Amino acid sequence: MEANKKRSDCPVSQALDVFGDKWSLLIIRDLMFGNKCTYNDFLKSEEGIATNILATRLKGLEENGIIQKQAHPDSKAKILYRLTLKGIDLLPILMEIYIWSDKYFTMPTDLKATIKEAKKDKEAFAKNITKELKKQLDEKKNSR
């Protein structure tokens, strides 16, 4: 997942080189929908990512401009991770994965309700989530 490393000129292949492994997508999911933003938050995800894999994926996502690090306001020992605009632009892809999964797998009731809401008006749903994620970025810029 090195930055600028690509196997081919195929757009799908290039995108998968950046975020195509399951761990990277789960980190993006947690940043986007899970209110997780620290290393320990990601470690506590139910999928059980190993620390070495987490460190590698965070580094790769940062090198590829999907996430960025910032100082934690409450602890100098902690780092906050946030999606960049490039990372936020992955929202429609994740929404479609959720919708596809809802069609073929059993979903928890609360998640099913959220997916139903998203399917009603994808554009409005994406706009609201994007607005919240961009607000987090703006808060970072304003805190400097």
Instruction: Describe the sheet with the most strands.
Output: 2 strands, antiparallel
Termini separation comes to: 30 Å
Q: Provide the β-strand percentage band.
A: 5-15%
| Global mean pLDDT | 90
Rg, alpha carbons: 16 Å
Helix count from the secondary structure assignment? 8
Q: What structural class do helix, strand and pairing data support?
A: mainly alpha
Tell me how many strands there are: 2
| Global morphology | globular
Summarize the amount of helix as a percent range: 55-70%
Order of helices and strands: HHHHEEHHHH
Strands of the widest sheet, in order across it, are 1-2
Low-confidence stretches: none
Features:
62% helix, two-stranded antiparallel sheet, mainly alpha, 2 strands
Describe the structure.
This protein is mostly helical and 144 residues long. The chain has helices spanning 11-19, 22-33, 39-43, 51-63, 85-88, 91-104, 109-120, 122-142, and strands spanning 67-71, 79-83. The chain has a two-stranded antiparallel sheet. β1 and β2 form a beta hairpin. It is globular. The two termini are 30 Å apart. The model has no long low-confidence stretch (mean pLDDT 90).
Please give the structural blueprint.
Layout lengths: L10 H9 L2 H12 L5 H5 L7 H13 L3 E5 L7 E5 L1 H4 L2 H14 L4 H12 L1 H21 L2
Antiparallel strand pairs: 1-2
